[in-house]
Amino acid sequence: MSTSDIRVRFAPSPTGFLHVGGLRTALYNHLFARHHGGRTILRIEDTDRSRYVEGAVENLLDTLEWAGITFDEGPRNGGPYGPYIQSERTELYRQHVDQLLAEGKAYRCFCTPEDLERSRNRQIEAKQDASYDRTCRSLSESEIREKLESDCSFTVRLKVPLLGTMQFTDLVRGEISVAYEVIDDQVLLKSDGFPTYHLANVVDDHHMRVTHVIRGEEWLPSTPKHLLLYDCFGWDAPQFAHLPLLLNQDRSKLSKRQGDVAVEDYRAKGYLPEALINFVALLGWNPGDDRELFTLHDLERDFTLDRVSKAGAVFDIDKLQWFNAQYVRSLPAETLVNICQPWLAEAGIDTADTARCISITTLLSSYLSLPSDIAPLLRPFSSSPIIIDDAESRDILDSEISRQVLRDFLAKAKAPGEWTAPAIKAMISDIQKESGIKGKALFGPIRIALTGAPHGPDLGTTAEILGRDMCIARAAAQLS
Ligand code: GLU
């Protein structure tokens, strides 16, 4: 195969939101295709009408675009093998079901939900695995005709071989073999005339010329059924790669109960798409060395399926925060100001003064994992008076030695001279030289008086941004 023949698809069901596992599947498909010069398809699998959620498709597409993943073919931009929404392709599935029926590879099942329930209960009582008991597989032509004439509703099921084993190679999991006897006679067409996932998925992967199916491990049990269908239609099957499960910290399957699973929740919390992509890329794939920071472009260059592991990948939120902090810190100053705009405004900082806002956010950027972390750090920069209410800080300020430091600071601040971070630092070291007070005893009271807190970013830069007048006013307020 020449590399440009590679075609992959991301085939989500629009059930409401994009799961982080879905984002990883979309990303790996994207990376595999870009690495090999292939094409990507987005296909919406919406044949389960009972799970349909209004607006879910748009939300899904927007979220993927936000994350930087776009597709060569799909519902938004079309393509040569559309439509790319399964509910618009039902006629095609019906034709294929008719073909299988005509060739005796599938059969109509007239069992009612109550019949199926009864049979299932019998199997459970007999401690057998619950699967379809194949009652309708042996109906005669005349029995079938009779039921059709009396308008009985039916599903269509695949005639799975009763004996033998199916073998295939998964690009991640290696050789897999499954005995036919454990495979149910799968429903292909439901009684509402809509195909099941299995049929529509295979028909579309074939007609959309998909060469590689890269999807989550939860679909591995479906693969033998899909391969059987390829066989029944006489089609070449694509290659399969099943991605490892995403796990909670306690190694259970990633679930909403232990944290957010929707990409949009991370977006709303202020995670940057670059950070989320970098983090998700490493959930199941590794570059083979100790590099951790990857742009999408780096990933496209380096990603190969042979470095995808079989073992489940733990979704470690602390690690995601670490990635986010790296990306927040490397944002251009103007971008960070834009992102932090709501919190700057809320803190009463003049957002029209771009230069000052840039100085503030640049100073604070190394303290941020999420942009919202900036809120409490902005307090010293608002024009409201500083309120010092913690006992420890009050005790420090009330000591005689601190009052002397503040008096010296005030005198020097009022004297003419530059008001820049280096000048302010030089001023503080002059106080040290003249008074012999140093370390915490020197810096503590100045910092607390100016910012209200005993710890914080570089004091000289903070005082420069606050400006001489505000520093004088705040130091004086503690001496009055
Ligand atoms: N529609 C399935 C899903 O929601 C697609 C599975 C597959 O990729 O085959 O994940």
Outline:
By secondary structure, the chain is mostly helical. It contains 20 helices and 11 strands.
Task: Tell me about this structure.
Helices cover 46% and strands 9% of the residues. The chain has helices at 20-36, 56-66, 90-102, 113-125, 141-149, 197-207, 223-233, 263-268, 273-281, 296-302, 317-329, 333-346, 354-364, 374-377, 391-398, 400-414, 421-435, 439-451, 459-466, 468-479, and strands spanning 7-10, 39-42, 106-109, 155-158, 165-170, 174-179, 187-189, 212-216, 239-243, 246-247, 313-314. A 3-stranded antiparallel beta sheet has the order 3-4-7. Helix 1 (20-36) links the parallel strand 1 (7-10) and strand 2 (39-42). By secondary structure, the protein is mainly alpha-helical. It has 20 helices and 11 strands. Helix 6 (197-207) packs across helix 7, helix 16 runs antiparallel to helix 20 (468-479) and helix 18 runs parallel beside helix 19 (459-466). The model has no long low-confidence stretch (mean pLDDT 94). The N and C termini lie far apart (82 Å). The radius of gyration is 32 Å and the shape is elongated. The structure holds glutamic acid. Glutamic acid binds at residues 11-13, 45, 197, 201, 215, 219.
